[in-house]
Amino acid sequence: MRPTPAAQPGANPVAPGAAEPGALEFEAFYRLHVARVYALCLRMIGQPALAEDCTQECFISAWKALGGFRGQSSHSTWLHRIAVNAVLGQRRRGQSDLARAALPLDELAFAVSDGSLQASSQAHTQDLESALARLPRGARDVVVLVGLYGHSHEEAAQLLGIAEGTSKAQLHRGRRLLAQHLGLSQEQA
Fold first, then answer.
1. In the structure, how many helices (H) and strands (E) does the chain have?
2. Contact 160, 84 (CB under 8 A)
3. Same-domain check for residues 26 and 91
4. Which of 38, 73, 101 lies at the terminal end of a domain, its last residue?
5. What is the C-alpha to C-alpha distance for residues 36 and 17, in angstroms, rounded to an integer?
6. Dist CA 34 CA 169 (whole Å)
7. For the whole model, what pTM was predicted?
8. What are the pLDDT digits (tens) for 106-137?
């Protein structure tokens, strides 16, 4: 069960400080954000089934906590944090240490369909997603958060529970390994 593509961005159907949303409002909220949350989870955990579980866990947590959302950040930032926590929780439970299967072509295409990863062709996208999947967990997490999603090292360190210097080192390591996996020189990566 792959999540449906996100609705067009616009006004969030769930406003901070509003009364508890009903099922219809939350469904609209879900449709607006599900593709990006799923893509983040898939990139971090590398397995479609586990990414679906993390996505589901993220939205269950969001539903439970939505009444307490204060609006100090955007809904997408808030969900991003919940999704990263869902992935980290999945890892703590040891459920992502199964053999990592290669992503099927349709899953690869969906993972980048949210537009956050630009590639010149589907082959390049496939190569990049495959290279990302081969990175060690720590380097992959930082490359996804800093390199693909544009978080600062400080934000990535907070999300992952690591030191900012560790984030910088993991990004350097990840870029070096990506360059090797893609057959590029370090300057091209």
1. 8, 0
2. yes
3. yes
4. 101
5. 24
6. 31
7. 0.64
8. 444 444 444 444 444 455 667 778 888 899 99
